[in-house]
Amino acid sequence: DTFTRNRLQKKTERTCAMIKPDAFLNAGKIVNAIVRSNLRINQLRMCKLTQQEAAQFYAVHSERPFYPKLVDFMSSGPILAIEIVGEDAIAKWRSLLGPTNSETARAERPDSIRAKFGTDNTMNAAHGSDSDETATTELDFFFGSGRVGQCANLSDCTLCIIK
Ligand code: GDP
Ligand code: MG
C-alpha cells in the first residue's frame, strides 16, 4: 500500500560536493567514485574562490581557531563544485568522504575519499553538505544567479595547470 511504499522509498536529495584545491589533480578519480556509487552529477563547474568568497562559504566556522587557515587554503587554487542528485545523496556522499580529518580517515576508513586524497584536518580533499538546508544554500552559492568564483573557461584560463 501507499504507506509501505513511502516508508521503503528513499528520498531523492541534492547535495553540494566540492573538490578542494589539494585534490584538484585527483578530480577525475573523485568524479568516478561519485558515478560508480549510483549518484548522478547534475551540474559541475570549475572555479577559484577569492578569500572573501571562501570566508562566506565557511562563515558558520568564523569563530573557530582554524578559520583563517581554512579560508587561505580554500582560496589557494582551483576547485570543482558539483551538484549531486540521488537517493539519500547527502548521507551517501558524506559516507564516501569519510571522517573530516584525513589522518583519522586513513585509520578508520582507509577506502574513503578523504583517506585516499586528503592530507590532514585542513586539507581533506573534498566537501559535502551536511543537511538539506545547507545543500540549498551551497548549491545556490555556486550555481545560483549570483554565482560566485572566478570563471575558469578554456579560452581565457589563468588557472589551468595543463598549459
Ligand atoms: P566537514 O563538514 O566534515 O567538512 O567538517 P566541518 O564542517 O566541521 O569543517 C569544515 C572544514 O574545516 C573541514 O572540512 C576542514 O577542512 C576544516 N576543519 C574542520 N575542523 C578542523 C580542525 O579541527 N582543524 C583544522 N585545521 N581544520 C578543520
Ligand atoms: Mg561541514
Q: Which helices and strands appear, and what pairs or packs with what?
A:
Elements lengths: L1 H7 L3 E8 L7 H10 L3 E9 L2 H7 L9 H8 L4 E9 L1 H9 L4 H7 L4 H5 L8 E3 L3 H12 L6 E2 L12
Helix pairs in contact: 3-4
Bound molecules: guanosine-5'-diphosphate (GDP) and magnesium ion (MG).
What percentage of amino acids are in beta strands?
15-25%
Structural class comes to alpha+beta
Largest sheet: 5 strands, antiparallel
**CATH fold-level name:** Alpha-Beta Plaits
Percentage of residues in helical conformation = 25-40%
Order of helices and strands: HEHEHHEHHHEHE
- Low-pLDDT runs of 5+ residues are none
User: Tell me, what is the CATH class?
Assistant: Alpha Beta
Instruction: Report mean pLDDT, rounded to a whole number.
Output: 92
**What would you call the shape?**
globular
Q: What is the CA-CA span between the terminal residues?
A: 59 Å
Number of helices: 8
- Trace the largest sheet across and list its strands: 4-1-3-2-5
- So, the CATH homologous superfamily? Nucleoside diphosphate kinase-like domain
Bound molecules: guanosine-5'-diphosphate, magnesium ion
How many runs of DSSP E, i.e. beta strands?
5
| Computed CA radius of gyration, to the nearest angstrom | 16 Å
CATH-level-2 architecture: 2-Layer Sandwich
What count of structural domains?
A: 1
